[in-house]
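Dear colleague,

Following up on yesterday's call, I've attached the two folding results inline so they're easy to grep. Please treat them as preliminary; we haven't cross-checked anything against experimental data yet. The first protein's sequence and structure tokens come first.
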Amino acid sequence: MTMTHAVRVMAAFALHGSCVGVLYARLPEIQAALGLSKGAFGLALTAMPAGVVLGNLFVSALVESVGPRRSLLAGLPVFAAMTIPVALAPGLPALALLGFGVGLALGNLAINVEADRIEAQSGRRIMNRCHGWWGIGFLGVSLASVGLIGLGTAPVTHFTVFALVATGLTLWLIGPLRDHPARPGAGAPRRFAIPGRAAFVIAGFATAGILLEGIGRSWGVIYLRDALGLSEQFAALALPALIGALTLGRFLGDGGVQRWGALAVERTMAAATAAGIVMVVVAQGPMLALTGFAVIGLGICISIPLGFSAAAKTPGRPAAETMAAFSLISTVIGFVSPPAFGFVAEVAGLRMAMAALLPFTLLAWYFAPVLAPPRTDAEAASA
């Protein structure tokens, strides 16, 4: 079977997501096996986003110098194998999780850079579908892990077999890729991907999506249980409502952006996100609340993919550098948002905490012009 470069890159996104999913599915067992309290294990888990931030600071120069293809060929197998030390680490597995975070950052940057280069060469959008496949990979491996847990498979055995399979899939998927040229007009790469004005503006646009995805995953079920008084079983529907709509939207997003343009689509999505928040805040019953979470998922579905695309098009800096800077900011926002939401909810209540997210949809609307591609010299001269 002949696979296009775009299909191979989408599969690489799914493989990267599965590397994350396989670890997350076994973390509760690892906590129990290490005999760590929830507080101690929670502290150890902060090493993972710290590793992502650290990785994003310096891996952009590596991806630019060796290319995303070579970065993935070497990086994905190592990233998959870095799950094994987490299961074996004595005491606090913080060092192993830090290394896993660095590997996550490298793989994430390389697949996004490659997706952008294919978009630039082909003239067709694939970034949103790529991120949709990432979610499919995460979800698929998580569900498969449930079966292996039921069979009593030890995490270290699971991780070892997974790493071997991931290595074979990487060679099959990435090996035939050819190196695509970088976008023209990029400056020389710097040693560290320090966020600049462009990265912060793009992050300003994407903040609503980053916040709501993280908060929805962490607090959606709790919101339905405590604010609406629903049973645990019914409240659990908040997560598939949000993530299902988000994933579906990402598979449909490329066609919409191709047809109507990123600016028009994203401003429509910002309005939809605001409407979804209002529905969740005013809901007195489960159907309106679940619909609201689904509308939120649809509204934020393309924020992060379009953020990566906008970062890649930033003039004057290599695509990998601005994408890494944007990813760094996104990681920090995503890390602090669930506890910040919890603090506001403790002080003002869950409904007010959710309502406090509405202004961020205005930020998405205001900063959406960053998605418009920069004009060429010829276009500027004729304007």
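Below is the second protein, in the same order (sequence, then structure):
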Amino acid sequence: MAVPEPDLFVRTERQRRFVALAGELADRFAGRAALHDRENSFPFENFAELRASGYVRLTVPVEWGGEGANLTETLLAQERLAQGDGATALGIGWHLAVVGKLAETRAWPPAATARIFREVAGRGALINSAASEVETGSPSRGGRPTTTARRAPGGWLLTGRKSFTSLAPVLDYAVVSASFEGSDGGGWFLVQTGSPGVTVVETWDALGMRATGSHDLVLEDVFVEDGDLLETFGRGNTCQVGTGDGAGWALHIPAVYLGIARAAHGFAVEYARTRRPNSLPGPIADQPHIQALLGQNEIDLLAARSALYTVADRWDAEPERRGELVPLLGAAKVLAVNLALQIVDRAMRVAGIAGLFRQLPLERLYRDVRAGLHNPPMEDAVLRNLARAALARQASAAAIS
């Protein structure tokens, strides 16, 4: 798929290097994406290449053998990777975000932190959070996990079932949320997926993002040591995406959906340039209504990418102001995802009925991009928080005057 050049959002040599690596991988992944989507199969070969290329260690600190990519660098790479295969990009994005957030906050015990950095950099270990449950809905809503942790000699025993665990077929570690038995609180635990009592149940059969391998993770009296309790939380404070320290790493989600939108737009531009029905004197690109669709997509891509990278740049450059930036993270996600949906829809209109057929990538991109609506943070919560912030500012200003 054509990639618009030059990309004015890529401004440094490090950014260019990471985007080039992502582009090499994306071009190879694009040739497999349709088959994995159709077969609802997991792209094991993609993840072997992500490991071999060193992409999995992108956000590991340099002193631990990684690239030490900051948020902006990671988002640029992820957006490019998603142009080849959105499902693979979203899957590896969860891993990169867990590691990047840990590198930024160092919130875990030192031994667990060192273990993850060492294993990701050394052997390409993969990690993701396991928070969602059918009973609680999205963890961003603050539901109490039904997965339980009860005390055992030297550690804890975890029992429960997690849904939507992306990368389940290849994960080495899962960061599992669980409620403390007999307490209102709970914690996040580091679980080796190869441990006794851990099984993957293949439940993922969805409309889009079919190759993420987001199956259920079942834990039955899984033992973890005391040092594997990473963080604790209170009632109603169970979400690690888009909240608290390191919240900026949630922006890996809209970056992927913008990558999907860019892929659709790039295809539509090329299709318009080369499609020549015999009812017209030239390509459909000469038609005013086609130019209007493509032009509006250019505007929406500029708006969405500007919002995303403005917030990301500020997150990297102004760590002392990150608390103030948190509401903008949700705003950037909602804006980017909604504009991505519109961009892909217009690309489908450019192709016409041909876009419905599987020999073109648009029908898959159309399905994949819709999953962004259901990734955290949820739109209603973002809008509510922004409204409350605006009302609070107005009340404060009125009180001062």
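For the second protein, one point worth flagging: Residues 288-317 form the longest helix (30 residues).

Best wishes,
A.L.
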